[in-house]
Amino acid sequence: MSIYMHFRQEEHEFIDQVLEWKETVIEQYAPRLTDFLDPREQEIVQSIIGSNDDVKIMLFGGAEGAERKRAFLYPSYYSPSIDDFQLKAYEITYPEKFVQIEHRQILGSLMGIGLKRSKFGDIHFHDKKVQLVIGEEVSSYVELQLQEVGRVKVSLQDIPLSELVSPEAVWEETSTTAASLRLDVMLASIYNLSRQKAQLLIGAKKVKVNWKVVEQSSFECREGDILSARGFGRSKLLTIDGKTKKDKWRVIVGKQK
């Protein structure tokens, strides 16, 4: 039975990468650290590595409840520690009495200095405090290059990982029905939009499924998928409970508060 049959076509390339990591650990009998992975990628890695006796896995993103984490794959003889994840944490200082910076602005500024999304983890907000987790290998570069967020001057203050504040995601459950499991139909049902509006959001690259932009309105959703539409928030398809008498899908949805 092929391992690929359990995953979507667009996930096959990442699966190949995970299998390559696994073989490297087995052949070299040495640990392997990945870049930051989103929750779906973490799920895939854990599924493939599983309870393998030759290769173990540990995930860590700097704080309890972190969304984006690095995976540390290691042979059975090795005893991993937090230091193996090579993480650095910073607090972003800025004139908070006069301006407020947003998640998307920080994300844009980091990408703007040429940093790949896989090289930094969660961006934490707590009141006006803003914190950032990045890979140690790019820390010197980020310290040098990240001087503005939007048009606001910022500076980075090195902090220990223990000072990171990560609010736990809370999902508010609700039920809905949908004529099909197509992405445009699901978005329309969950966010009370017209199907045309949902299709416009998808076409404008404002919709993600499992943290990846999806541009096909016909993309078929599955139980467990995380959907997000810019300006409408994030939701999770908790359960798909079959069809109603009117031949509509009955879906339990969690909306992130």
Average of per-residue pLDDT values = 92
Shape: globular
Radius of gyration: 20 Å
Helical coverage, percent range: 10-25%
What is the count of β-strands? 15
Low-confidence stretches: none
Description:
The strands form four sheets. A six-stranded antiparallel sheet has the order 10-15-14-13-11-12. With 257 residues, the chain is α+β, with helices and mostly antiparallel strands. The chain has six helices and 15 strands. Strand 2 and strand 3 form a beta hairpin.
How is the topology of this model organized?
Layout: H1 12-28, E1 32-37, H2 39-49, E2 55-60, E3 69-75, E4 87-93, H3 103-112, E5 120-126, E6 129-135, H4 139-145, E7 148-149, E8 152-153, E9 155-159, E10 171-178, H5 183-191, H6 195-203, E11 207-209, E12 212-213, E13 226-229, E14 233-243, E15 249-256
Antiparallel strand pairs: 1-3, 2-3, 4-6, 4-9, 5-6, 7-8, 10-15, 11-12, 11-13, 13-14, 14-15
